[in-house]
Specification:
The protein has 181 residues and is of the alpha+beta class. Helices cover 23% and strands 38% of the residues.
Length: 181
């Protein structure tokens, strides 16, 4: 829903407690990803998860085409929970050459903004990230971007239901993409 439509519905601003709870959840998620605690991270995801990171094209300002929505044909990630679980299971097989030796990660999360949605137990969460990864002696990558999430309150606590990741790099120079953002 657009901000204009939400304004028309007059959804209340989030409480300080809710904002703090969601920020702490995002920081915990980043810590789990840094530690490669993927089995624990997956418990933070809903069964109907959509994890999406489309490719972005550089366009002139006069081209008003949506750089994200109109690029459904190319995505680095366009995954369900089952898809993510398949990727994570592969890491345990020993056949993931890009993870031997292991990659070291740092996720920094900032600019967290929370909005209520029309669904009482779902929250739209905007954030920015900086993700650094280092592997071997010279393989280093820094990724910057924005995320738009839907976090849902379930019997298991807050869980991620949707994530749209928009990288600020239009050309990904990494040798592989073995990072979750």
């Amino acid at each position: 829903m657009s901000a204009v439509m939400q304004e028309a519905v007059k959804l209340p601003p989030p409480s300080v407690e809710l904002l703090s709870e969601i920020q702490q959840t995002l920081y915990r998620e980043a810590r789990l990803l840094d530690a490669e605690a993927y089995d624990e991270w997956v418990t933070m995801l809903t069964d109907d998860l959509h994890y999406h990171m489309p490719g972005i094209e550089t366009r002139y300002r006069r081209d008003k085409t949506d750089q994200v929505s109109d690029l459904k044909r190319m995505a680095y990630y366009n995954d369900s929970l089952d898809d993510l679980n398949k990727r994570l299971r592969r890491l345990k097989t020993g056949t993931a050459w890009s993870e031997d030796p292991a990659t070291r990660y740092v996720h920094l999360i900032g600019n967290v903004e929370v909005e209520h949605t029309l669904k009482p137990h779902e929250y739209r969460v905007y954030s920015t990230f900086l993700a650094y990864r280092c592997r071997n002696a010279r393989d280093q990558d820094t990724l910057y971007g924005n995320r738009e999430d839907i976090w849902r309150r379930t019997s298991h606590g807050l869980q991620l239901a949707r994530r749209l990741i928009v990288l600020k790099q239009n050309v990904l120079l990494s040798k592989n993409l073995n990072i979750y953002l």
